[in-house]
Amino acid sequence: MRNHLLLFALIGLMNSTLVFSQDINVKIGVKDSVSSKILNENRQLIVNLPKDYDSSNNTYPILYILDGNMTGLLDAITATRKLKAEFIIVAIPNTDRDRDMMPLSTPTYEVANPGAENFLSFIGSELIPHIDKNYRSNGKRTIRGRSLSGLFVMYAFLEKPELFDNYIGNSAGWYADMEYYFGALTSNSFQNKEQFDGKKLFVANSLVDPFDPKKKVHNGMLEFSKKVRSELGDRLSFKYVTFDNYGHVPFPSFYDGLKFVLKEDG
Description:
The protein is of the alpha/beta class. The chain contains seven helices and nine strands, in the order ββββαβααβαβαβαβα.
């Protein structure tokens, strides 16, 4: 059963010499959940609906937000509203982030039980069918991840590109000791070039990222970008951008990724 989720915002209103405040209740979404047999747990969701959802019969694209805490959801709402884009936004809070986002464990990032394969299966076999059944989806799907969940976006793009139309990874990529895994996954995935027809991939990183001081992730993404362009060409729309005035997860990168996706749709 869905429950309304309210955000209690204290809005400061200023009028020349007078400053006062007003409490405003803003409904930012409904609580939902999926009982997952694959993950053996109940996964909570927060779903934000377009403002005219209840008064129309329109269908909408779905925007899936990894690291779907309140901040992640508000980022998505802000970006979509600035772009005047209507999405059903599905925020997926974490239960075990390292387990779900990582397909492997390496000395650079050790994970006790890497479970990205199961998490991706949950998304494809349980979550997406639940959303498509209970909400008015038009079948177009976008996924967004940042930092570790940005790595998962790259994994999903290579492992099951059919699941989403658009992939947005902010501070996304992998360290050098993960290249053996992702290099092999890339080579294997790119053998079936047709599965990338019409897909859109936007990746953004910072050149002053404190988590990538030697730019190993960035250099890895440069090599990956060359492979995408040389092997897939115009089959998909791809953009890799960098920022030198923002740190980890560059502030404009989500907005820029959505803008890229929407521009290509238009």
